[in-house]
Design goal:
This protein has helices spanning 7-11, 36-40, 63-72, 86-91, 103-107, 128-134, 148-159, 175-186, 203-212, and strands spanning 51-56, 75-81, 96-99, 116-121, 135-143, 165-168, 194-199, 218-222. It is α/β, with parallel strands linked by helices. It folds into two domains: 7-175, Rossmann fold (3-Layer(aba) Sandwich); 193-225, no CATH class. Bound molecules: NADP nicotinamide-adenine-dinucleotide phosphate.
């Protein structure tokens, strides 16, 4: 378990659940409960051959874990984020960082010309054609923000037997995965970066902050004791 790339559970450590979640449950029934272990095959112990990984939105509540987890494997990690967070995302371990507001960032092209074996997609608004152009022949995109376009492209890829894949992922956390992640934290292998904290009484403000989409790391709602 601990040797697999399990950001699906980490993403659920957030107290947020916005976006078009739920859309893909029926489409990806094959993987239910959806499992990064099954989908990515990315090991966290550096025992595998080098994998080129792209994390979109490496500065967000989900992506900042994805970058760190990916770097536990034998990987070269490219990540996207806004200009203000480039150094932050590098500090998480990313080898290359693209500013998503530049033409280079929008194209997702790796500065070193690498094609991606695996993309952990943690933002919205990037068309499949952009991913496709940057994937290795058997590359796959794990889409954490699946919407209608994902459904359509997933179906088209299946029907055309495309080796490049777009796979929706809806998090269904399991206790043992959370435990594994907590252990990784205790071992100092990953960390949680907190953008801001709100007491439960100000949960609405915290929610609004989260929904703005400009947090660096997590927005936390703290339960009062
Ligand atoms: N599938 C699942 O089970 C699951 C679970 C949890 C969350 N999610 C989804 O995952 C997505 C990410 O959630 P999150 O909580 O990590 O987001 P988040 O924390 O709100 O992300 C905020 C960050 O995104 C950056 N950003 C905004 N647009 C970007 C773009 N086009 N490219 C790269 N970076 C961009 C912002 O940078 P600037 O401030 O510089 O613009 C900011 O640092 C959401 O859509 C959420 O619904 C899915």
């Amino acid at each position: 378990m601990c040797h697999t790339f399990v950001s699906r559970a980490l993403s659920e450590l957030s107290l947020r659940a916005r976006g078009p979640l739920g859309t893909m449950c029926c489409v990806n029934r094959k993987y239910r409960p959806l499992d990064f272990q099954v989908i990515t095959s990315l090991k966290l112990d550096k025992s595998e051959q080098l994998t080129n990984v792209l994390v979109t939105n490496g500065s967000g509540g989900v992506g900042h874990y994805a970058v760190q987890l990916a770097k536990l494997g034998n990987t070269h990690v490219t990540a996207t984020c806004g200009a203000r967070n480039i150094e932050f995302v590098k500090s998480l371990g990313a080898d290359e960082v693209l500013d998503y507001k530049t033409p280079e960032g929008a194209s997702l092209k790796s500065p070193s010309g690498l094609k991606y074996d695996l993309v952990i997609h943690c933002t919205v608004g990037i068309p499949w054609s952009t991913f496709k152009a940057n994937l290795t022949p058997t590359g796959k995109v794990i889409d954490l923000t699946p919407g209608g376009g994902t459904v359509l492209n997933y179906a088209v890829n299946k029907l055309t037997f495309s080796k490049k894949q777009l796979l929706p992922l809806i998090v269904v956390p399991k206790a043992e995965e959370i435990e594994c992640l907590v252990n990784l934290m205790k071992e100092g292998k990953i960390k949680t970066v907190i953008d801001s904290r709100y007491p439960l009484s100000l949960a609405e403000e915290g929610w609004a902050k989260s929904m703005e989409g400009h947090a660096t790391g997590k927005v936390v709602i703290e339960c009062e004791r």
